Amino acid sequence: MEITPNPVETGGLTIKNMRTFFWLARLRSFHAVAKQVGVTQPAVTSRIASLEDELGVQLFSRERQLVTLTPEGQDALRLCESVLDRVDDIVRRYSGTAEQAGIVRIGVIDTVARTWLPTVLNRVQAEFPNIILEITNESTVALHSMLRSGALSMSITISGCDEIDVTNTEIGQYAIKWVASRELVDEDHLYTIEELKQFPLIGYLANSPPAQLMQRYFGNAKHTSAIRNTTNSMSTMIWLAENGLGIAAIPPHAILQHLQDRRLVVVKAERSFDPMPFFLNCRSRPYSPVVQTVEALVREVAAQFARDHFKTVSG
Protein backbone atom coordinates (compact mmCIF):
# COMPACT_ATOMS: atom_id res chain seq x y z
CA MET A 1 0.00 0.00 0.00
CA GLU A 2 1.48 3.33 -1.05
CA ILE A 3 1.30 6.10 1.53
CA THR A 4 0.93 9.61 0.19
CA PRO A 5 3.03 12.03 2.24
CA ASN A 6 1.27 14.85 3.99
CA PRO A 7 2.17 18.02 2.08
CA VAL A 8 2.25 20.06 5.31
CA GLU A 9 5.16 17.92 6.51
CA THR A 10 7.20 18.21 3.33
CA GLY A 11 8.83 20.86 1.19
CA GLY A 12 8.02 24.50 1.76
CA LEU A 13 4.49 24.17 3.12
CA THR A 14 5.46 24.60 6.77
CA ILE A 15 3.91 26.62 9.57
CA LYS A 16 6.98 28.89 9.74
CA ASN A 17 6.82 29.59 6.02
CA MET A 18 3.09 30.28 6.16
CA ARG A 19 3.56 32.71 9.06
CA THR A 20 6.33 34.45 7.13
CA PHE A 21 4.02 34.62 4.10
CA PHE A 22 1.29 36.17 6.23
CA TRP A 23 3.60 38.85 7.61
CA LEU A 24 5.00 39.74 4.20
CA ALA A 25 1.46 40.13 2.87
CA ARG A 26 0.71 42.31 5.90
CA LEU A 27 3.86 44.44 6.11
CA ARG A 28 5.01 44.37 2.45
CA SER A 29 8.63 44.72 3.53
CA PHE A 30 11.21 41.93 3.76
CA HIS A 31 13.15 43.97 6.31
CA ALA A 32 10.10 44.51 8.53
CA VAL A 33 9.15 40.83 8.34
CA ALA A 34 12.67 39.75 9.28
CA LYS A 35 12.44 41.91 12.39
CA GLN A 36 8.94 40.66 13.21
CA VAL A 37 9.69 36.91 13.01
CA GLY A 38 13.26 37.16 14.33
CA VAL A 39 15.24 35.92 11.32
CA THR A 40 17.54 37.44 8.72
CA GLN A 41 16.20 39.08 5.59
CA PRO A 42 17.72 36.37 3.35
CA ALA A 43 15.89 33.77 5.49
CA VAL A 44 12.59 35.53 4.75
CA THR A 45 13.36 35.49 1.04
CA SER A 46 14.25 31.79 1.23
CA ARG A 47 11.04 30.87 3.07
CA ILE A 48 8.85 32.67 0.54
CA ALA A 49 10.70 31.10 -2.38
CA SER A 50 10.35 27.65 -0.79
CA LEU A 51 6.62 28.17 -0.28
CA GLU A 52 6.15 29.36 -3.87
CA ASP A 53 8.09 26.36 -5.19
CA GLU A 54 5.92 23.97 -3.16
CA LEU A 55 2.67 25.55 -4.29
CA GLY A 56 3.80 26.10 -7.86
CA VAL A 57 2.54 29.67 -7.98
CA GLN A 58 3.96 33.16 -7.59
CA LEU A 59 2.59 34.67 -4.41
CA PHE A 60 4.00 38.17 -4.75
CA SER A 61 4.61 40.63 -7.53
CA ARG A 62 7.93 42.43 -7.06
CA GLU A 63 8.09 45.52 -9.24
CA ARG A 64 10.13 48.63 -8.43
CA GLN A 65 10.79 47.35 -4.91
CA LEU A 66 7.03 47.13 -4.26
CA VAL A 67 5.75 43.88 -2.73
CA THR A 68 2.12 43.15 -3.58
CA LEU A 69 0.05 39.99 -3.60
CA THR A 70 -0.75 38.32 -6.90
CA PRO A 71 -4.32 37.01 -7.38
CA GLU A 72 -2.99 33.54 -6.48
CA GLY A 73 -1.32 35.06 -3.42
CA GLN A 74 -4.56 36.64 -2.26
CA ASP A 75 -6.33 33.30 -2.52
CA ALA A 76 -3.48 31.50 -0.72
CA LEU A 77 -3.47 34.12 2.05
CA ARG A 78 -7.09 33.37 2.98
CA LEU A 79 -6.31 29.66 3.24
CA CYS A 80 -3.11 30.24 5.22
CA GLU A 81 -4.95 32.45 7.70
CA SER A 82 -7.42 29.64 8.30
CA VAL A 83 -4.58 27.14 8.86
CA LEU A 84 -2.76 29.46 11.26
CA ASP A 85 -5.96 29.99 13.23
CA ARG A 86 -6.38 26.24 13.65
CA VAL A 87 -2.74 25.78 14.66
CA ASP A 88 -3.11 28.43 17.36
CA ASP A 89 -6.32 26.75 18.57
CA ILE A 90 -4.41 23.46 18.99
CA VAL A 91 -1.59 25.12 20.90
CA ARG A 92 -4.02 26.96 23.18
CA ARG A 93 -5.91 23.77 23.98
CA TYR A 94 -3.00 21.46 24.71
CA SER A 95 -0.21 23.72 25.97
CA GLY A 96 0.04 24.53 29.66
CA THR A 97 -0.05 28.29 30.16
CA ALA A 98 2.66 28.27 32.85
CA GLU A 99 5.14 26.81 30.34
CA GLN A 100 4.29 29.28 27.59
CA ALA A 101 7.31 31.19 26.34
CA GLY A 102 7.75 34.12 24.02
CA ILE A 103 8.06 37.87 23.65
CA VAL A 104 5.00 40.12 23.63
CA ARG A 105 5.49 43.75 22.60
CA ILE A 106 3.04 46.15 24.27
CA GLY A 107 2.70 49.89 23.75
CA VAL A 108 1.18 52.05 26.50
CA ILE A 109 0.37 55.70 27.04
CA ASP A 110 1.84 57.59 30.01
CA THR A 111 -1.34 57.37 32.09
CA VAL A 112 -1.37 53.56 32.00
CA ALA A 113 2.38 53.38 32.63
CA ARG A 114 1.88 55.48 35.76
CA THR A 115 -1.07 53.51 37.14
CA TRP A 116 -1.74 49.81 36.55
CA LEU A 117 1.03 48.71 34.14
CA PRO A 118 3.36 47.68 37.02
CA THR A 119 0.66 45.24 38.17
CA VAL A 120 0.67 43.61 34.73
CA LEU A 121 4.46 43.31 34.77
CA ASN A 122 4.51 41.79 38.25
CA ARG A 123 1.72 39.32 37.42
CA VAL A 124 3.43 38.14 34.22
CA GLN A 125 6.75 37.69 36.02
CA ALA A 126 5.12 35.67 38.81
CA GLU A 127 2.63 33.60 36.77
CA PHE A 128 4.34 33.26 33.37
CA PRO A 129 8.10 33.45 33.99
CA ASN A 130 8.94 32.39 30.44
CA ILE A 131 7.00 35.27 28.84
CA ILE A 132 8.98 38.45 28.23
CA LEU A 133 7.18 41.77 27.89
CA GLU A 134 8.76 44.53 25.84
CA ILE A 135 7.14 47.85 26.76
CA THR A 136 7.02 50.97 24.60
CA ASN A 137 5.76 54.23 26.11
CA GLU A 138 4.51 56.66 23.46
CA SER A 139 1.54 58.81 22.45
CA THR A 140 -1.67 57.24 21.14
CA VAL A 141 -0.91 58.33 17.57
CA ALA A 142 2.62 56.89 17.65
CA LEU A 143 1.47 53.60 19.20
CA HIS A 144 -1.23 53.12 16.57
CA SER A 145 1.39 53.64 13.86
CA MET A 146 3.63 51.00 15.46
CA LEU A 147 0.69 48.61 15.75
CA ARG A 148 -0.11 49.01 12.05
CA SER A 149 3.51 48.35 11.09
CA GLY A 150 3.62 45.11 13.10
CA ALA A 151 6.10 46.44 15.68
CA LEU A 152 3.60 45.82 18.52
CA SER A 153 1.30 42.96 19.44
CA MET A 154 -1.08 45.27 21.29
CA SER A 155 -1.36 48.79 22.62
CA ILE A 156 -3.30 50.51 25.37
CA THR A 157 -4.34 53.99 24.24
CA ILE A 158 -7.17 56.50 24.47
CA SER A 159 -8.78 55.83 21.09
CA GLY A 160 -9.45 52.99 18.67
CA CYS A 161 -6.92 52.09 15.99
CA ASP A 162 -8.42 52.21 12.49
CA GLU A 163 -6.82 49.09 11.06
CA ILE A 164 -8.74 46.19 9.53
CA ASP A 165 -7.09 43.43 11.61
CA VAL A 166 -6.99 45.32 14.93
CA THR A 167 -9.75 44.88 17.50
CA ASN A 168 -10.49 47.83 19.80
CA THR A 169 -12.05 47.22 23.20
CA GLU A 170 -12.80 49.91 25.77
CA ILE A 171 -11.43 48.54 29.04
CA GLY A 172 -11.99 51.46 31.38
CA GLN A 173 -12.13 55.21 31.93
CA TYR A 174 -10.10 57.82 33.76
CA ALA A 175 -11.46 60.86 35.55
CA ILE A 176 -9.75 64.08 34.42
CA LYS A 177 -9.16 67.10 36.65
CA TRP A 178 -7.37 70.42 36.39
CA VAL A 179 -4.24 70.38 38.54
CA ALA A 180 -1.73 73.10 39.39
CA SER A 181 0.89 74.24 41.85
CA ARG A 182 -0.79 75.36 45.07
CA GLU A 183 1.07 78.69 44.75
CA LEU A 184 -0.78 79.37 41.48
CA VAL A 185 -4.41 78.76 42.47
CA ASP A 186 -6.80 79.26 45.35
CA GLU A 187 -7.73 75.74 46.48
CA ASP A 188 -11.03 76.90 47.99
CA HIS A 189 -12.26 78.83 44.97
CA LEU A 190 -14.66 77.32 42.41
CA TYR A 191 -13.36 78.47 39.02
CA THR A 192 -15.54 79.28 36.02
CA ILE A 193 -14.55 78.57 32.42
CA GLU A 194 -13.62 82.22 31.90
CA GLU A 195 -11.50 82.26 35.04
CA LEU A 196 -9.67 79.10 33.99
CA LYS A 197 -8.82 80.71 30.67
CA GLN A 198 -6.97 83.46 32.51
CA PHE A 199 -4.36 80.94 33.60
CA PRO A 200 -1.65 79.76 31.22
CA LEU A 201 -2.92 76.37 30.03
CA ILE A 202 -0.58 73.44 29.50
CA GLY A 203 -2.09 71.79 26.44
CA TYR A 204 -1.74 68.66 24.34
CA LEU A 205 -0.47 68.53 20.76
CA ALA A 206 -3.07 69.73 18.25
CA ASN A 207 -5.48 67.10 16.88
CA SER A 208 -4.37 64.49 19.40
CA PRO A 209 -7.14 62.65 21.32
CA PRO A 210 -6.39 64.54 24.58
CA ALA A 211 -6.48 67.87 22.71
CA GLN A 212 -9.91 66.94 21.36
CA LEU A 213 -11.03 66.15 24.91
CA MET A 214 -9.96 69.64 26.01
CA GLN A 215 -11.70 71.19 23.01
CA ARG A 216 -14.96 69.51 24.04
CA TYR A 217 -14.47 70.78 27.57
CA PHE A 218 -14.31 74.41 26.49
CA GLY A 219 -16.99 74.01 23.85
CA ASN A 220 -17.54 77.27 22.00
CA ALA A 221 -15.37 79.23 24.41
CA LYS A 222 -12.07 79.79 22.60
CA HIS A 223 -9.12 78.69 24.68
CA THR A 224 -6.21 78.27 22.27
CA SER A 225 -4.87 81.74 23.04
CA ALA A 226 -4.48 80.70 26.68
CA ILE A 227 -2.28 77.68 25.85
CA ARG A 228 1.34 78.52 26.58
CA ASN A 229 2.96 75.10 26.30
CA THR A 230 1.99 71.94 24.39
CA THR A 231 3.45 68.47 24.72
CA ASN A 232 2.62 64.79 24.19
CA SER A 233 4.49 63.85 27.39
CA MET A 234 2.62 63.63 30.66
CA SER A 235 5.91 63.80 32.55
CA THR A 236 6.60 67.16 30.92
CA MET A 237 3.08 68.40 31.72
CA ILE A 238 3.52 67.41 35.36
CA TRP A 239 6.90 69.16 35.55
CA LEU A 240 5.50 72.36 34.02
CA ALA A 241 2.50 72.38 36.36
CA GLU A 242 4.65 71.57 39.38
CA ASN A 243 6.85 74.58 38.62
CA GLY A 244 3.90 76.96 38.44
CA LEU A 245 3.98 77.41 34.66
CA GLY A 246 0.28 76.69 34.15
CA ILE A 247 -2.66 74.41 34.90
CA ALA A 248 -2.95 70.99 33.27
CA ALA A 249 -5.77 68.50 32.69
CA ILE A 250 -4.46 65.20 34.07
CA PRO A 251 -5.98 62.02 35.56
CA PRO A 252 -5.44 62.38 39.34
CA HIS A 253 -4.72 58.64 39.59
CA ALA A 254 -1.57 59.21 37.51
CA ILE A 255 -0.16 61.71 40.02
CA LEU A 256 -1.25 60.35 43.40
CA GLN A 257 2.18 60.89 44.96
CA HIS A 258 2.30 64.49 43.72
CA LEU A 259 -1.10 65.15 45.27
CA GLN A 260 -0.20 63.46 48.54
CA ASP A 261 3.04 65.48 48.76
CA ARG A 262 1.11 68.66 47.90
CA ARG A 263 3.42 69.35 44.97
CA LEU A 264 0.20 69.64 42.95
CA VAL A 265 -3.42 70.28 43.94
CA VAL A 266 -6.72 69.64 42.21
CA VAL A 267 -8.34 72.84 40.92
CA LYS A 268 -12.04 73.13 41.69
CA ALA A 269 -13.99 73.92 38.53
CA GLU A 270 -17.67 74.52 37.74
CA ARG A 271 -17.51 72.30 34.67
CA SER A 272 -16.31 68.70 34.86
CA PHE A 273 -14.41 66.88 32.14
CA ASP A 274 -15.93 63.96 30.32
CA PRO A 275 -14.16 60.81 31.53
CA MET A 276 -11.31 59.72 29.27
CA PRO A 277 -11.74 56.16 27.95
CA PHE A 278 -8.81 53.86 27.38
CA PHE A 279 -8.76 51.07 24.82
CA LEU A 280 -6.97 47.79 24.29
CA ASN A 281 -5.94 47.72 20.63
CA CYS A 282 -4.96 44.17 19.74
CA ARG A 283 -3.82 42.57 16.51
CA SER A 284 -6.15 39.76 15.49
CA ARG A 285 -3.79 37.81 13.17
CA PRO A 286 -1.65 35.83 13.58
CA TYR A 287 -2.72 35.49 17.17
CA SER A 288 -0.35 33.37 19.23
CA PRO A 289 -1.38 31.69 22.50
CA VAL A 290 1.25 33.74 24.33
CA VAL A 291 -0.32 37.00 23.13
CA GLN A 292 -3.75 35.72 24.11
CA THR A 293 -2.50 34.89 27.62
CA VAL A 294 -1.09 38.40 28.07
CA GLU A 295 -4.24 40.01 26.64
CA ALA A 296 -6.43 38.13 29.12
CA LEU A 297 -4.23 39.26 32.00
CA VAL A 298 -4.27 42.88 30.77
CA ARG A 299 -8.06 42.80 30.61
CA GLU A 300 -8.26 41.39 34.14
CA VAL A 301 -5.91 43.99 35.64
CA ALA A 302 -7.62 46.83 33.76
CA ALA A 303 -11.04 45.69 34.99
CA GLN A 304 -9.85 45.64 38.59
CA PHE A 305 -8.31 49.10 38.24
CA ALA A 306 -11.55 50.39 36.70
CA ARG A 307 -13.55 49.05 39.66
CA ASP A 308 -11.16 50.57 42.20
CA HIS A 309 -10.99 53.82 40.24
CA PHE A 310 -14.79 54.11 40.16
CA LYS A 311 -15.01 53.52 43.92
CA THR A 312 -12.42 56.21 44.59
CA VAL A 313 -13.98 58.76 42.27
CA SER A 314 -17.58 58.11 43.38
CA GLY A 315 -16.57 57.99 47.01
Topology, element by element:
Blueprint (H helix, E strand, L loop, with lengths): L14 H13 L2 H8 L3 H15 L4 E4 L2 E4 L1 H24 L7 E7 L1 H4 L3 H11 L3 E7 L2 H10 L4 E4 L8 E9 L2 E4 L12 H4 L4 E4 L4 H10 L8 E5 L2 H9 L4 E4 L5 H5 L4 E2 L9 E8 L5 H26 L1
Parallel strand pairs: 3-4, 3-5, 8-9, 8-10
Antiparallel strand pairs: 1-2, 5-12, 6-12, 7-10, 7-11
Explained architecture:
- The protein has 315 residues and is an alpha/beta fold.
- It is 44% helix and 20% strand.
- It folds into 3 domains: 7-94, Winged helix-like DNA-binding domain superfamily/Winged helix DNA-binding domain (Arc Repressor Mutant, subunit A, Orthogonal Bundle), CATH 1.10.10; 98-173 and 277-314, 3-Layer(aba) Sandwich (D-Maltodextrin-Binding Protein, domain 2), CATH 3.40.190; 177-274, D-Maltodextrin-Binding Protein, domain 2.
- Strand 8, helix 9 (209-218) and strand 9 form a beta-alpha-beta unit.
- It is elongated.
User: Shape from CA axes?
Assistant: elongated
Structural class: alpha/beta
**Which CATH architecture of the largest domain would you pick?**
3-Layer(aba) Sandwich
Order of helices and strands: HHHEEHEHHEHEEEHEHEHEHEEH
What percent of residues are in strands? Answer: 15-25%
CATH superfamily grouping of the largest domain: Periplasmic binding protein-like II
Ranges where pLDDT stays below 50 over 5 or more residues in a row are 1-10
Helices, by number, come to 12
Distance, first to last CA: 76 Å
The total tally of domains equals: 3
The biggest beta sheet is recorded as:
5 strands, mixed
- Strand tally: 12
In CATH, what is the class of the largest domain? Alpha Beta
Give the spatial strand order of the biggest sheet. 4-3-5-12-6
**On the 0-100 scale, what is the average pLDDT?**
84
